[in-house]
């Protein structure tokens, strides 16, 4: 327990999400400036939830009780070049971390499409990049420091706590407030990015889609449910991945930069010229120095087994006429299997069926059950931070280690200090 009670800093209500579609609740929103203040706050709070950069589209962080943000805590970032690790404050954003790592000849194993998200929030919700051999961002975590319900500071690591560590990293904020994470880094290597356009409809079979997704270290396929892939963004390690020809699997090389959403300028996007550059300037879709949009969108995403991506897309394709009026773009990405108990890629090499919707939440919510019904034969796992309507019992059935996670929660938070309606509804008691 903390031995002192530092002054509490609070703001008004926590406000809404980046997209404007999630109301985080009445608050108050606490903004501690140091660890002891945070520990004292949690120790005296009957219920409290941590709030990250507000990029989630689900209510995973919302609460009818108190919330806390770590944005005013010290932005610690300590790189151990010899060990190839970094200990970073949970509120630090991936883009900032990547810049510091690059300055020391190191890089993150993978990055999401947005470099603006925080390390703590992305790890807690299973956020990912893309790549057949690339696991979710949380898989790079090797240790966490967390304030538990009684205000104590608990450190867990992959080496010292192997029996529970995979349940504690990606935990939806339900075990405590993570203050720091230690991540694995890799030696920096230059990367290039190219985009190919307008693949023929005949290339939508499993073999061709697998070949597209294997075309680089990280690949994203954009389409609009019209029966073909419109754009393939291919990110390759220079000197390791074979550079793609002008015409590849029937798609033609883009002659100028493109944005994944039709009609949007490509100014915010990372370099697509094929020129070598740092990984943090190629792996994300969007540049750190720009906000890629004003957030007027909603996102949904479902993980299926990688070998099922072609039949899964084919199953949803008849809904194209209903989907397109509500859609900005859809994306297909891959994520390698991991051991994290609540990871949507738990023990399954996955492909992700992603939707970036227009900001029409009622119409999207009305359409999702039809999409989910068509995906049901493929045992889809929804992304925790995005919008879905899948029944809680169907979600729970996809996680073989759920009982172990609930036992860990009972051990660390028996009074449910860190719960909210989202966690209770989806994970159960």
TrEMBL record:
Start and end residues of each FAD-binding PCMH-type domain: 22-188
EC number per UniProt: 1.1.3.41
InterPro entries, alphabetized: ALO_C, FAD-bd_PCMH, FAD-bd_PCMH-like_sf, FAD-bd_PCMH_sub1, FAD-bd_PCMH_sub2, FAD_lactone_oxidase-like, Oxid_FAD_bind_N, Vanillyl_alc_oxidase_C-sub2
Region (Disordered): 1-27
SUPFAM superfamilies named in the record: FAD-binding/transporter-associated domain-like
Enzyme class: oxidoreductase
Xref: Pfam families: ALO (PF04030), FAD_binding_4 (PF01565)
GO molecular function, one term: xylitol oxidase activity
Keywords: Oxidoreductase
Any Gene Ontology CC annotation: membrane
UniProt name for this protein: FAD/FMN-dependent dehydrogenase
């Amino acid at each position: 327990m903390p031995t002192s009670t530092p002054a509490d800093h609070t703001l008004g209500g926590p406000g809404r999400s980046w997209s404007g579609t999630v109301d985080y609740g009445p608050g108050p929103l606490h903004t501690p400036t140091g660890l002891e203040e945070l520990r004292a706050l949690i120790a005296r709070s009957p219920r409290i939830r941590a709030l990250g950069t507000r990029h989630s589209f689900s209510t995973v962080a919302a609460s009818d009780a108190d919330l806390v943000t770590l944005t005013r805590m010290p932005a610690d970032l300590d790189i151990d070049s010899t060990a190839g690790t970094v200990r970073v404050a949970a509120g630090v954003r991936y883009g900032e971390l990547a810049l510091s790592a690059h300055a020391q000849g190191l890089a993150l194993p993978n990055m999401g499409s947005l470099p603006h998200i925080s390390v703590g929030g992305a790890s807690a919700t299973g956020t990912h990049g893309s790549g057949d051999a690339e696991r979710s961002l949380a898989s790079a975590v090797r240790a966490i420091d967390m304030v538990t319900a009684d205000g104590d500071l608990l450190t867990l690591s992959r080496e010292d706590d192997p029996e529970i560590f995979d349940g504690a990293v990606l935990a939806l904020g339900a075990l405590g407030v993570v203050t720091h994470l230690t991540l694995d880094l890799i030696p920096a290597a230059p990367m290039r990015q190219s985009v190919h356009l307008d693949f023929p409809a005949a290339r939508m079979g499993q073999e061709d889609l697998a070949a597209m997704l294997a075309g680089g270290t990280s690949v994203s396929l954009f389409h609009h449910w019209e029966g073909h892939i419109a754009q393939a963004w291919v990110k390759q390690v220079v000197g390791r991945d074979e550079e793609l020809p002008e015409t590849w699997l029937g798609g033609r090389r883009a002659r100028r930069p493109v944005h994944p959403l039709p009609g949007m300028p490509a100014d915010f996007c990372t370099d697509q010229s094929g020129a070598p550059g740092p990984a943090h300037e190629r792996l994300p879709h969007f540049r750190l120095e720009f906000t890629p949009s004003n957030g007027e969108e909603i996102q949904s995403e479902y993980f299926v087994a990688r070998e099922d991506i072609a039949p899964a897309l084919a199953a949803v394709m008849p809904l194209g006429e209903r989907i397109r009026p509500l859609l900005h773009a859809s994306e297909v990405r891959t994520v390698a299997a991991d051991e994290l108990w609540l990871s949507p890629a738990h023990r399954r090499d996955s492909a992700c069926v992603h939707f970036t919707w227009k900001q029409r939440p009622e119409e999207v919510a009305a359409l999702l059950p039809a999409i989910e019904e068509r995906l049901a034969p493929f045992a889809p796992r929804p992304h925790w931070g995005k919008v879905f309507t899948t029944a809680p019992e169907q979600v729970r059935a996809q996680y073989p280690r759920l009982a172990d996670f609930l036992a860990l929660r009972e051990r660390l938070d028996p009074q449910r200090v860190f719960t909210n309606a989202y966690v209770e509804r989806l994970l159960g008691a």
